[in-house]
């Protein structure tokens, strides 16, 4: 047998039929749904008089449009959003699909909820009408986003017509310096390879720096690989990944466990597997990264300067940098450090897990949010929220002047009522800094949770490495 990459092993083991040289019919072990991209798919399914043959392999979570105010019973006020949620409920009831509904105690952002309940296992193919499904590569599962018409196809057949991706390997060796995280690493990678740098590729991350990352940090890394255009992100599952899954999947026991472990042990690229493209990075070069523009690849180290578009080659990069600077109201050559922020948002499927909130807590310590800054923490899920409350994190952050909210996507894309005003500048732990993403005319600076916490305390973009008590 020829040597294969982990990506090809996952695709081949899920191929029901080869359609042509580029396309296969792929079996999908788990299909996650949200209220935003599923309604039209169900409508299409019903119009065609079709059912959902494998409801147990589908799960739905209300994520995007849900309000996050700290009330006991959440009510979605906005009529179109309320309709999306009630549609999802009706569709799940009709087809017997499990749903994490608005007031379910485990509700949250779909990509935070699914792994914490042991739904994501190494070797699976997981799809969702949401681009950040690449997150699951952290556990050795092939995850990727699909469009609404594909959601309908998956509901009806549990399969997908899938165009093969090319193989890319990104090796990162060395140790991440003090004060830097997986978020800084992925922002650095994206800034170097570009927002289209992995377009058309399934990316496998490897190297000593990746081995050293916690599973939650790997979620952050794989989550944002899509911001480089990746069609999938994978990390071969190691002891850490397996322990994470086994802890959360009590059904994997006895003979099933032995069979699972045997299967999982083969989930890595063969030693002589061929990758179409390979990149190498040195973790020692990672610094806390901050975006200055309106695309995730427009980022520099916090002690760097806003680049001069004139220094870029004439063409798309220069034009988009010029446009970006107009939007973010920054000047070429300006330092990012010291830039005042109005708002701090700690949340999203990139950085709202318990380790992220512990990091924020550690940075904040006994300090207080700067006067005039509104700082909001939106835990990724009900489970994260409960854990953070049990650990005293919520109480300490509230005392420091942060708002402590209920779980959801919230200000990551402002589809609920957590919206910034025009011109407001936000230090954000999210993954996209597109124009208008957090509110029309609002400006987003992507960064790590530690950096966002430091910005909240100082009221301006701050190099967290100057903090004495960081790790
Ligand atoms: C709403 C959804 C389709 C979208 C996505 O696909 O990623 C959203 O989650 C986002 O982060 O922009
Ligand atoms: S948290 Fe943000 S990136 Fe993640 S699914 Fe929600 S909107 Fe998309």
From TrEMBL:
Into which EC class is this enzyme placed?
lyase
What EC identifiers does the entry list? 4.2.1.33
Which keywords describe this protein according to UniProt? 4Fe-4S, Amino-acid biosynthesis, Branched-chain amino acid biosynthesis, Iron, Iron-sulfur, Leucine biosynthesis, Lyase, Metal-binding
> What biological-process GO terms show up in the record?
L-leucine biosynthetic process
Instruction: Name the source's superkingdom.
Output: Bacteria
Reactions performed catalytically: (2R,3S)-3-isopropylmalate = (2S)-2-isopropylmalate
Domain Aconitase/3-isopropylmalate dehydratase large subunit alpha/beta/alpha, first and last residues per copy:
9-459
A GO term, aspect molecular function? 3-isopropylmalate dehydratase activity
State the pathway, as annotated in the record. Amino-acid biosynthesis; L-leucine biosynthesis; L-leucine from 3-methyl-2-oxobutanoate: step 2/4
Q: Name one Pfam family in it.
A: Aconitase
The record's PROSITE patterns line, in alphabetical order, gives: ACONITASE_1, ACONITASE_2
- List the cofactors: [4Fe-4S] cluster
How the protein assembles, per its UniProt entry?
A: Heterodimer of LeuC and LeuD.
The record's comment on protein family reads: Belongs to the aconitase/IPM isomerase family.
Q: What function does this protein fulfil?
A: Catalyzes the isomerization between 2-isopropylmalate and 3-isopropylmalate, via the formation of 2-isopropylmaleate.
Q: Which NCBIfam families match?
A: leuC, PRK05478.1, PRK12466.1
Q: What is this protein called?
A: 3-isopropylmalate dehydratase
Q: Which organism is it from?
A: Comamonas antarctica
């Amino acid at each position: 047998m020829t040597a294969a990459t982990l990506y090809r092993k996952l695709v081949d083991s899920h191929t029901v039929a080869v359609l042509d040289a580029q396309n296969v019919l792929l079996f999908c072990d788990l299909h996650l749904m949200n209220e935003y991209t599923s309604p039209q798919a169900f409508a299409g399914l019903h119009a065609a008089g079709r059912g959902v043959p494998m409801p147990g392999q589908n799960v739905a979570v209300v994520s995007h449009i849900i309000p996050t105010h700290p009330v006991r019973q959440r009510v979605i006020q906005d009529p179109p959003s309320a309709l999306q949620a009630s549609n999802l409920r009706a569709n799940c009831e009709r087809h017997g699909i499990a749903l994490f509904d608005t007031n379910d105690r485990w509700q949250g952002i779909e990509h935070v909820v699914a792994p914490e309940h042991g739904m994501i296992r190494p070797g699976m193919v997981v799809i969702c009408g949401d681009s950040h499904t690449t997150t699951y590569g952290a556990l050795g599962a092939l995850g990727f986003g699909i469009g609404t018409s594909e959601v309908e196809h998956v509901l009806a057949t549990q399969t997908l017509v899938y165009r093969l991706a090319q193989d890319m390997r990104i090796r990162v060796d060395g140790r991440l310096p003090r004060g830097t995280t997986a978020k800084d690493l992925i922002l650095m990678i994206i800034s170097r390879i570009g927002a289209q740098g992995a377009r058309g590729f399934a990316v496998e991350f490897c190297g000593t720096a990746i081995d050293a990352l916690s599973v939650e940090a790997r979620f952050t890394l794989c989550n944002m690989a899509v911001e480089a255009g990746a069609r999938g992100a994978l990390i071969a599952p190691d002891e850490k990944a397996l322990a994470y899954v086994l802890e959360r999947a009590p059904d994997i026991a006895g003979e099933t466990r032995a069979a699972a472990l045997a299967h999982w042990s083969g989930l890595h690229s063969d030693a002589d597997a061929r990758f179409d493209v390979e990149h190498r990075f040195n973790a020692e070069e990672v610094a806390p990264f901050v975006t200055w523009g309106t695309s995730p690849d427009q980022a520099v180290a916090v002690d760097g300067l806003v680049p001069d578009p004139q220094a870029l080659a004439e063409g798309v990069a220069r034009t988009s940098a010029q446009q970006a600077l107009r939007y973010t109201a920054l000047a070429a050559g300006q330092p990012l450090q010291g830039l005042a922020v109005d708002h701090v948002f700690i949340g999203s499927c990139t950085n709202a897990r318990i380790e992220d909130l512990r990091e924020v807590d550690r940075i904040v310590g006994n300090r207080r949010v700067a006067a005039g800054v509104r700082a909001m923490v939106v835990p990724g899920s009900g489970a994260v929220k409960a854990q953070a409350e049990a650990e005293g994190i919520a109480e300490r952050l509230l005392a420091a002047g942060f708002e402590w909210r209920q779980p959801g996507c919230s200000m990551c894309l402002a589809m609920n009522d957590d919206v910034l005003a025009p011109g407001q500048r936000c230090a954000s732990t999210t993954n996209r800094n597109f124009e208008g993403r957090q509110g029309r005319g609002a400006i987003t600076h992507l960064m790590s949770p530690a950096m966002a916490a430091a910005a909240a305390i100082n009221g301006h973009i701050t190099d967290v490495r100057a903090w004495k008590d960081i790790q």
